[in-house]
Amino acid sequence: AGGVVSPEAEAALTAALQRDPENGTARYYSGLMLAQTGRPDMAFRLWRGLLEGSRPGDPWYEPLQAQIPDLAWRAGEDYQLPAPTVGPSAEDLQAAEGMSDEDRKAMIEGMVTQLNDRLATQGGTAEEWAQLIGAYGVLGQTERATAIFAEAQTRFEGREPDLALIRAAADRAGVAR
């Protein structure tokens, strides 16, 4: 109440996380508590992991999207919100089970094309670029994987952790130089 986290509330959050460390609601409110008690660094780490593992329909998703940029700044972190991910829904996966191999491959290629187009126009995270490189490798489209690898290296130049992720994907796809 009034921006103050009572000892009872803190104990309830701790107990909820001990029962289920993946409890999104408890993780959200624990991060809020940490932010309010002068630990934006710990709150940011907690919220970043929660946001990256969440989907737009989760109840904490929009509050996280709204609050994490300011929290990152307070924590001294250079952070960009992740681009919305595009991937198959549960319904898409269920529909794919009944498809012929040819139809399933066409569906996958369509999703890869969507990801490619979004990254080309809007950019994205290193994880998404790595995913695209890997997808082209799996599809046997090594020329596309090589081109995407080269573009990703340019886009993430100077950001070694991101480049390491991208290089690992290129290595798995067989296109690392």
Automatic annotation (TrEMBL):
Q: Origin, by domain of life? A: Bacteria
**What's the protein here called?**
C-type cytochrome biogenesis protein CcmI
